[in-house]
Amino acid sequence: MIRELTVEDTGTYCCGVHKDLGTKIYTPVELKVKKGSLGSREVTAYAGTRSNIKCRYDDEYKEKPKAFCKMGTDQRCIKQISTEPNRLWSHDGRFSIHDNRSAGFFSVFIRELIAEDTGTYACAVVVSDEMEFYTVLTLNVIEDLSNEKSISETVHVGGDLTVNCKYPESHRNDNKFLCKRPATAACSYSSTVRKSRTYINEGKISLYDDRETQIFTVRIKRVNEQDSGEYWCGAEVNWTSNRGYKVYFTQIDLMVTGEFV
């Protein structure tokens, strides 16, 4: 295992066996290290919430299996979750993985984060039985008691919903979003708020981010029973880059009841 590779590590190496009578058996291994931006990075998330981590890979590995694992004290992978052939999703407890081959990255979803999830992880590409490579990230799970993590609302059909999602100061300048979670681990959304104090309207949903007060406001007009479900207020942290991830800071449980009177 070679950690923290540099371009200068490129070269020919030998795996050797020393036998009796001084006999030596060597197997040459040619190592090529490409310059890139996939070095180690840090991800911050919040206990009781969830996170979506982006793991980028080169196009030549599109068809190769992908994996995500926690690194043990001996720098070996433990608690590994891997993609499965011909399946969009793979799940293992609170961890899910999805390979977005058209975009050149796979996503790792971690639900119901706990402090014990803090540690060093690896995004891996399994090239063959003999070789895999990975990029390392450090996950820091923070217990943030200043922000409300879960909000439950009951609204009559035809009524309006307004919820204020307070977020940590560290996400003041990040893009914000609202998403609705279906039965899978994914959380889909179509609108992103990129500016402070600017309304974004998507049908009957209106979003507003006041970065001065660190409050992300969600409004849903004229709700119906189909609007019931689990929503999340979240922030994109450098999501367009190779080092991006998403944090979900407030869960909204919406229940829509009978006709509005």
UniProtKB/TrEMBL annotation:
<dbReference type="InterPro" id="IPR036179">
    <property type="entry name" value="Ig-like_dom_sf"/>
</dbReference>
<dbReference type="InterPro" id="IPR013106">
    <property type="entry name" value="Ig_V-set"/>
</dbReference>
<keyword id="KW-0812">Transmembrane</keyword>
<feature type="domain" description="Ig-like">
    <location>
        <begin position="28"/>
        <end position="134"/>
    </location>
</feature>
<dbReference type="InterPro" id="IPR007110">
    <property type="entry name" value="Ig-like_dom"/>
</dbReference>
<dbReference type="InterPro" id="IPR050671">
    <property type="entry name" value="CD300_family_receptors"/>
</dbReference>
<dbReference type="InterPro" id="IPR003599">
    <property type="entry name" value="Ig_sub"/>
</dbReference>
<protein>
    <recommendedName>
        <fullName>Ig-like domain-containing protein</fullName>
    </recommendedName>
</protein>
<keyword id="KW-0472">Membrane</keyword>
<dbReference type="InterPro" id="IPR013783">
    <property type="entry name" value="Ig-like_fold"/>
</dbReference>
<dbReference type="GO" id="GO:0005886">
    <property type="term" value="C:plasma membrane"/>
</dbReference>
<dbReference type="Pfam" id="PF07686">
    <property type="entry name" value="V-set"/>
</dbReference>
<dbReference type="GO" id="GO:0004888">
    <property type="term" value="F:transmembrane signaling receptor activity"/>
</dbReference>
